[in-house]
Amino acid sequence: MVIDVCRLGHSGERVRVSNAILLAFGALALRVTWVACASVTPVSDFAGYEQHAVAWLNTGTFGVAGNLAYRTPGYPALIAATYAVVGEHPKGVGYVQAALGALSCLLLVLIVGRFASPRAALTAAVLLAVSPTALAYTPVLASENLSTPVMLLGLLLVDNSRRAEGGRALTWSAGAGVVFGLLMLVRPAAIFLAPAFVLLVFVGGGQGKDSRGWHNRPARTG
């Protein structure tokens, strides 16, 4: 059965949900296996994230050396929440990040599927699923594990706002703004993406589906 996850390409084809879900489970299995086998000791920036998270749990205040913080709270919050549930061990965070990696693959299918063929969308997600770098960093306390799915979600909401009209467009834009704000709490360097997000929201936005040209050509029914 073909389910309308997202309209794709010039022909209006649709990605099969089963394929996208199988891909996500495959990405999850790879990452969980690597997390289970890997032995990671946080150092450098990674140790800094953990230090903030542990101090937050122990004192109820974000920051070290009193109220002074050298990191934004987004990623330490993920570590602290995980440690509060499973104990203070990086491997627990690694399993959470394995799920986030699988989520990134699904979001990538949805985003690429808006502008390319179903095969291109699935290929892009496969490349992310088996990326050596993405896999290697899954058990590491690196903020990219959280910022990647957050950024992809923001892009998806931005595109939704561009395709909508009136109040719905404003709602999607507001949602994208909230997600972008969260992204900056995870990776402050994301501030440099702000102009691109604004342009994506306002350039061509609010015109409705019928003005988007090839995005809205009639889908094949055969």
Describe this structure in words.
- By secondary structure, the protein is mainly α.
- It has one domain.
- The chain is 64% helix and 2% strand.
- The chain contains nine helices and two strands; from the N terminus they run E-E-H-H-H-H-H-H-H-H-H.
- Strands 1-2 form a two-stranded antiparallel ribbon.
- A hairpin with a 4-residue loop joins strand 1 and strand 2.
- Helix 3 crosses helix 4, helix 4 runs antiparallel to helix 5 and helix 4 packs parallel to helix 7.
- It is globular and about 50 Å long.
- It starts with 6 loop residues before the first strand and ends in a 20-residue tail after the last helix.
- The N terminus and C terminus are likely disordered.
Topology (SSEs and partners):
Elements lengths: L6 E2 L4 E2 L2 H21 L6 H16 L14 H13 L3 H23 L5 H12 L2 H6 L6 H20 L2 H21 L7 H9 L20
Antiparallel strand pairs: 1-2
Helix pairs in contact: 1-4, 1-5, 2-3, 3-4, 4-5, 4-7, 7-8, 7-9
DSSP helical segment count: 9
Strand arrangement within the widest β-sheet reads: 1-2
Shape: globular
Summarize the main sheet: 2 strands, antiparallel
Helix-strand makeup class: mainly alpha
Multimeric organization: single chain
The number of E-state strands comes to 2
Contiguous low-pLDDT stretches (5 residues minimum) are 1-13, 206-222
The arrangement of helices and strands along the chain is EEHHHHHHHHH
Helix content, binned percent? 55-70%
Count of separate structural domains: 1
Q: What Rg, in angstroms, do the CA atoms define?
A: 19 Å
**What's the overall average pLDDT, rounded?**
80
